[in-house]
Each structure stands twice: as C-alpha cells, then as structure tokens.
Amino acid sequence: MEIKAMKEARTLLTAFDYEPAPVERGYTDRALHINLGKTSVEQRDIPAQVREKFIGGKGYGLRMLWDAVKPSTRWNDPENAIVVAGGPICGITQYPGSGKSLVCTISPMTDMPIDSNVGGYFGPYLKFSGFDAMEITGKSEQEVIIFIDGNSGKVTVETAPLEAVDGHVLAEQMTEMYAEDEEDKKNISVICAGTAANYANIGLLNFSFYDLRRQVARLKQAGRGGIGRVFRDKKIKAVVIRYRGTKGNLNKPVDQSRINKAGIKLHRQIHDLDATQCRMHQIGTANIIEVMDAYDLLPTHNYQYGSHPETHKIASNVFIEKYVTQGMPDGCWYGCSLSCAKAADHFELKTGPYKGHKVTIDGPEYENAAGLGSNCGIFDPELILEANFYCDTYGVDTISFGTITAFAMECYERGLINRENTGGLELTFGNGMAQLELLHQMSRGEGFGYHIGLGVRHLKEYFEKAFGADRAFLEDIGMEQKGLEVSEYLPKESLAQQGGYGLTNKGPQHDEAWLIFMDMVNNQIPTFEDKAEALHYFPMFRTWFGLMGLCKLPWNDTTPADNGLTDEPAKIPEHVQNYVDLYNGVTGASIDKHELIRQSERVYNFQRIFNIRMGKGLRVHDAMPYRAMGPVTKEEYLSREERYDKQLLELQGVDPAGKTVEEKIALMRAYRLDQYEKLTDAVYKRRGWTAEGVPTVDYLREIGMDLPEVISVVTPLQG
C-alpha cells in the first residue's frame, strides 16, 4: 500500500496544540489524556502528592487507572484506560537500561490491573515531548492513529482505514510516513498490536525503535496480561511519536557528574566481564537455556520435567552460530552497552501470510526458547524463531502462548481432547507446525486457535464442559494463576520460587522475584523467615525499576568482580548504590537504599489494594496449581524418584519402601501444600498484611500510603 494513498484516505478527527512542558529533575509534571469516545485531547497537571507517593512509571499508571475505573469496570468497558509512563530516570543515556516504560490497564486475563514493562524509544520520547505519562480512555467508532509531534507540540487523532494491523508491517509504514527523511526515522517510535490481538485475550503491544544500521523498525514487547487486546478493542491501530534532538542532558538532572560516574563504572564492568559472565552482549537472555536445563529448571512438556536430551539443539551457541547477527549494536535505548536486544536478520519465513518474506526477528529470548520450545517439546530453532516472529507481529504474548499450547498438548496426549476437538490438529509435544497453525488461526479469530488465545483458564472450563475432561486434573496441570499463565521456569523444587510466582500482585511473572538459584541451588534462604525476607525485598526492589523507567538486567545480569565478597551478594550492593546515586543525581533528593525500598512499598501495597477493590487480591487468589509445587502424575514422580523418595524419608520421616507411586504422590502433595501455606503466612506477616493478604491500616500508615480512598477499601477487611 502506498503511503500517499493511506494519507489521502484519512480524516482528521481532532487536533490539539500544546506548549511542551520542560523536563526538570526528571519530570515534566504533565500528563497527556486522550478520550477516544469523546475524540478529545487535553494536557493535565500531575499533582505534587501523586509525584511524592507514586514516583513515576508503574506508580503513575496505577494511580491514573484507579481514578479512571470503577470496581465493576471490565477490560472492554470504555472507561478502562491504557496508561504509558516512564519515570524520573527514564531517558538518560549515561547508564545502561534507562529507556523503559511501563504500561498499565485492566487485564482481559485477570480482571485486575496489569503492568508490563517495555523497551523501545516511546517512553523517553514521550517525556521529552512534555509528558510524564499518557492515558487513553474511551472507544473509537473507527480505526484511528494517534500522532504526537513532540517538537512542534501537536497531537492529532485521524482515521486509519487503509493501514496494516500486523506489527512489523505497520511499524514500517508509520516510520516511513512520519519521518522526514532516512535520518529522521530514528526519531520515530510506534506503539501497535497485531491481527491476533483483535481476538486473543493474550494480545500484546509492540513498541518500536528504528535500527539505522539494519534500516528496519524493530519491535520490543509489553507482553503480559493482554494489553494489546484492550488497545485493539479501542480501535487504535497505532500511537506514533516523533521527537528530534535526543541528547544526554534532557532530563535536566541536578548532578550530571554523579550520573556519569555511575555509568562509566558500569560500562567498564560490562566491557571487562560480560563475556565471561552472562554473555548478554553476545546472545542476550538466551544465555541461560542450557543452564536451566543443567539444573533441572527448564520447563519441558508443560512443566512436567526440567530438562530434555535434545536441549542442545536450541542451546545458546546454536542461535549465536546460525541465526543471531553478531557485531552490531543491539541496545533498545541509547547508551546501553549491555545490548541484549538481539536480532535474527534475513530470516526466511516458511508458513503463514508472510511465507517467503525475509524478516528481522526480535530475539531469541530465553522465555521464547523455553515457552515456544522446550515446554512444547519443540527443539527446532527455526520453528521457534518463526513462532517468535508471528507472535510479535500478530500481537501475541509469547509466554502465555507457549504455556497455553503446552497445556493443550498435554491434554491431547492424555486423551482429554482429540483430533476432532482440535479441528484436525495433532497437538502432540514436538509438533511445531501445529503450534504455528494455532497462531495463524488466532490471527484470523477462528478454529481451535481462537480458544488458545483466550488462555488456560478458559480452556479448563471449555475442556470440561465441551469434552468432559476431569476439572480437578485440569486445575492441577493448568499453569495459570489469577488468570495469567506462568512464565518459563520450573518452580517444583524451589518453595521460594513458588512464592515468587504465587504471591505476586499481577500473577505468576518472574519480574517480581526470581529466587530459584538463591533457594534451590545455593541454599541461601533455608528458613521460612529467610524466604519471606527475600519475598519482601526482591519484589520491592524490582518494583523500583518500574517506577523509574529502568531495565532490571543491568542490575543482576552483570556483576562486579568482587561481588561474591560482599555481605549480600544476591542484592549486588554496588549496583544498588548506583541506583541510589542515579535517583539522587537526577532529582536532587537524598534517599538511601532503605528509602528506595519504601518508595516501592507504597506502590506495591497500593496495587494489592487496587486488586482487592476489583474483587481479587486475597489469599484464595494466591493459591498455585499443584503442577507448580510437585509431581501430579506417576511419570513425573518416577522421573525424580530417587530425589522424591529421599525427601519423603528425610523431610517427612516416611519410609517410601513398599508404598505405591500413587501413595507417595499423595504424601508428597500434602507436605508441599502445607509448606506453601506456611510460606504464605510468613510472607504476609513480613509484608505487613493480615492472614488473608490484606495490608493492615497500621502498616499503610507506617509506609505513608494511608490515603483515604485506600483506607476505605481495607478497613472492612481488617478482621
């Protein structure tokens, strides 16, 4: 489609002129509000109390969402908002990982607030254009494009009848349309979804950045919780921003030298140590595929097992040698020397509507290799990359899709569903072509792929009612909680990681707490109290990245050479101090590492109470499927029989000799469920919550989140 024809077919619905607010100390104190139902655009001040209590990023998103919705609001109601916000550190170029933004909405998967972090250039450009946050509410009657020109101070909303929907095509079209020349393309960033997000509740959002060397608009994903479904339900094709003039001091920090010092130190460390540590610069997050397999933590065949003999076929060296382009800058924001945003270039597609096209694929990521690959029994790197590409361009969360497909495959192999039920697809583990066909069906909203796109929670009900499957068994093996699919780590042998998944606010996502190595491999947190302390500190610390507009990878995927000699090596104390210095250097504040945690506690507890306001957020919602805790089936038990028999004897004082596998499974189940309940008690106590998981009024006062609207939600539940 010609760009000229697209422009000519458009109708201007509204235009808004504004004076871009200057950035001072990391803030503009302004938000952009767009109501598509009213076709209105306005600029609003962000109150000082909001800045003080909610800081930025995820905090701003949750606060604005709270104000936009009611307890009865569901994801497809017009008042549901999509909020995009960076934070005070977002946009600096001296420290790696400073280009993130957070997206919040009411999730079609969980019916509560979801937050998802994303790279790309949009977050920094939004701030430089004069806004700390952007909120979109209402629903359009027509397909629309929102365009923000951050230099001239103009926002337009136009109809978009001819533009594509799929992410890789639309991002290229919008970059070409709004850039004045080839050099200007780097100043364009696009938010879009894809055709599957029209139908699938696991729809994601793509955020683009233009790669001048590859001459392609690359995509990063706000993947979790179905935000892309909300985006397409509002009939948004794209939000496009243009900002020219990016440079290192646009945040107008108070102390630039303090920021520079922290950045230089980390850049030197990455240069000297990354090649022998996590190899992020070489392969990105895919560096841990074989590590997870070696420690029995790689989810395989719907989390039944933790390793597989064919993992070597999708090990990181395979992607490095055959697919991932080396020797090119791969940061998704300026100044990131960790450069983990890897790409497979000139990859020729073998299926679907783009068959024969040569494309650039964002990846591989570990989660994609584990979810689309091993968890579905697929060990063909080309099939994994193809599924990776189609998930991105169709707007599909790769984590949820991998976990859902693995669940359906196990149900198929156990005879709970059959080929007639799947519309002729043979959903056996390892059938990568069937997995791809599910994606293509999802993009058209048809066939069994349509049901896959609605999630594991939907499938459990569907398989029971339509095909007579045993609901109790489905609940055991369906790896979702709160409606969100579990991400791609096997938590069976790590009680702390079970809590890291189950005791989250948004559902089982590893960005709150990844404690497997501390717990299972290194035995650093042996008691319930130790685990509870870790499940307080790490979720709060990681929440802070979401408040600031930071990526977490430069914190713990590269470490100082002497980190092992520190008192708390898991926290990486030198890097914690770097973040304190960054915040103080930008804002002029004088926080310490303790106040850093307190800032997060306010927002974390606010999100918990937001969940309660929406009818969720209690202890009953924190229960995990048993597959996450222990062996459900005879095959699972026998795969680790020596380990499990030893645990029965040493932990429970039960001699396994003479007992059937079924009896041993039952004993193991009772013990592990009890352990999870005891962990839950300890974590709630450490977080200042009641036994039902409700933040206490006293604790809210202590941390400074005793806002009247917050107190009114929890007071009736204090017990």
Automatic annotation (TrEMBL):
Its cofactor is tungstopterin; [4Fe-4S] cluster. Pfam families: AFOR_C, AFOR_N. Keywords: 4Fe-4S, Iron, Iron-sulfur, Metal-binding, Oxidoreductase. InterPro entries: Ald_Fedxn_OxRdtase_dom2 (IPR013984), Ald_Fedxn_OxRdtase_dom3 (IPR013985), Ald_Fedxn_OxRdtase_N (IPR013983), Ald_Fedxn_OxRdtase_N_sf (IPR036503), OxRdtase_Ald_Fedxn_C (IPR001203), Tungsten_al_ferr_oxy-like_C (IPR036021), W-dependent_AOR (IPR051919). The keyword Iron applies. Gene3D superfamilies: Aldehyde Ferredoxin Oxidoreductase Protein, subunit A, domain 2, Aldehyde Ferredoxin Oxidoreductase Protein, subunit A, domain 3, Aldehyde ferredoxin oxidoreductase, N-terminal domain. Residues 27-247 form the Aldehyde ferredoxin oxidoreductase N-terminal domain. GO terms for molecular function: 4 iron, 4 sulfur cluster binding; electron transfer activity; metal ion binding; oxidoreductase activity, acting on the aldehyde or oxo group of donors, iron-sulfur protein as acceptor. Belongs to the AOR/FOR family. This is Aldehyde:ferredoxin oxidoreductase. The lineage of its organism: Bacteria, Bacillati, Bacillota, Clostridia, Peptostreptococcales.
